[in-house]
Amino acid sequence: MKNRRSRILALVGACILAMGTLTACGSEETNASTSQAQSSAQESSAAETTSSEAASTEAASTEASTETAALSGSIQMVGSTSMEKFANALIEAFMAENPDVNVTAEFVGSGAGIEAVTNGTADIGNSSRSLTDDEKAAGVVENIV
């Protein structure tokens, strides 16, 4: 049971990180450097997921008694209606493991999610479409999950 819980936590954490970087604001870059940064972020995300799973498996097998630092605060997600079931499952699992973090989500469409991240009213903008060149020029960083 503990091994399954650790795997779920690792998966949820990796997905939250990936979703957070999906539309997190960044500095303006040229299209070439943006593509390079996206490739690096995707490779890094895959490596983090693998590392997290390995660490979770190791921790579960040794049943280490050390506690991780508690997370607190809030996360606001806005965006794609097609990601509602997936996002709600992630939120539920994440908040079960991190009760001091309040995650809220509003499913109003991909465009609204990207707009909310661009204007700073949301931490994560879920989108089921690619970013436009104008959105990228505004500093929104695309990370495909």
UniProtKB/TrEMBL annotation:
Stored InterPro entries: PBP_domain, Phosphate_ABC_transporter
Lipoprotein among keywords: yes
Superkingdom classification of source: Bacteria
Subcellular location: Cell membrane
Membrane topology: Lipid-anchor
PROSITE patterns for this protein: PROKAR_LIPOPROTEIN
Entry annotated with the keyword Lipoprotein: yes
GO cellular component, one term: plasma membrane
Ranges for region Disordered: 33-70
Stored SUPFAM superfamilies: Periplasmic binding protein-like II
Annotated function: Part of the ABC transporter complex PstSACB involved in phosphate import.
Protein name stated in the entry: Extracellular solute-binding protein
